[in-house]
Amino acid sequence: MNALLAPATRLWLRLRLNEVGPLLSLSACGFFAWAFIALADEVREGETHALDSYLLLALRDPQNPANPLGPTWLEEAARDITGLGGYATLTMITLATWVYLLMTRRQSAALLVLFAIVGGMLISTGLKMGFERPRPDLVPHATQVYTASFPSGHAMLSAITYLTLGALLARVESSRRVSAFIMGLAIVVTLLVGISRIYLGVHWPSDVLAGWAVGAAWASLCWFVALQLQRRGQVEKPGELALPSDAKPE
User: Fold this and answer.
1) Which of 30, 54, 60, 151 could pair covalently with 211 via S-S, beta carbons 3.0-4.6 A apart?
2) Number of structural domains, the chain?
3) Residue 249 counted as domain residue
């Protein structure tokens, strides 16, 4: 009897997840979008400046603000980690994933990934141009910067890229434990990239929080769209391959 109930239970849980998934993704999009708007309003009014300054200085040597707290290797490690959120690294990761999806004949998923990442880059650029917040001037920057401060592009784009790709790989993976590991790794990398920007003195903490918020909102929206397209059969489902035009199913 238990052997018969187990497959039925798994099927019921899968159906429930398919129903709840779109609702959760849309709810997450709304929550993170609200968080970004609320934070942006506080930043415009200067309400976050005191806390931003306190946290930024707390990560610096009081005797020499040019030096971040900790040993030299930690500062070098922060530069390496912050590179995981740079345009060059994220572009290579996106292109590699895009080629992989095309090679495995998941054309619709490849197009969706490209739309999510490129769209996120355009949103990041537009927001920076709209807010034009100056970079922190309390401490010397420990790495080069070229754009405005709010929101953090590294935090935002790492959230979009790693959360989107993590969710995609997690759905392809049949093991729940492996799926949880993939999503956990995506979240940890996203958090480390944002923290590294504060540690290196190139962003206010509120910049990073805003980047995480808008990045998570966009990633959630893209995932909602992916789930809707999967329901309509326009995007390949987990484990499903698109057959070539000249191939016939067995």
Assistant:
1) 151
2) 1
3) no
Per residue in 61-77, pLDDT (tens digit) is 788 877 888 888 998 99
The reply to whether 237 falls in a domain is: no
Assigned token pair, 90: 């994220």
Cα angle, residue 162 at apex, residues 158 and 163 outer, rounded to 5°: 110
Reported as a single tens digit per residue, the pLDDT across 208-248 is 999 999 999 998 888 888 777 767 665 555 544 444 444 44
The pLDDT of residue 210 is 93
**Which domain range does residue 193 map to?**
22-56+71-231
| pTM for this entry | 0.80
Residue 9 covered by a domain: no
Centre a 10 Å sphere on the Cβ of residue 152 and count the other Cβ atoms it contains: 31
pLDDT tens-place string over residues 8-36 = 444 444 544 556 767 888 888 999 999 99
In a domain, 167, yes or no: yes
DSSP, collapsed to helix, strand or coil, labels residue 33 as helix
Q: Is 43 exposed, middle or buried (0-12, 13-18, 19+ CB in 10 A)?
A: buried
For the record, the structure tokens of 6 come out as 């187990």
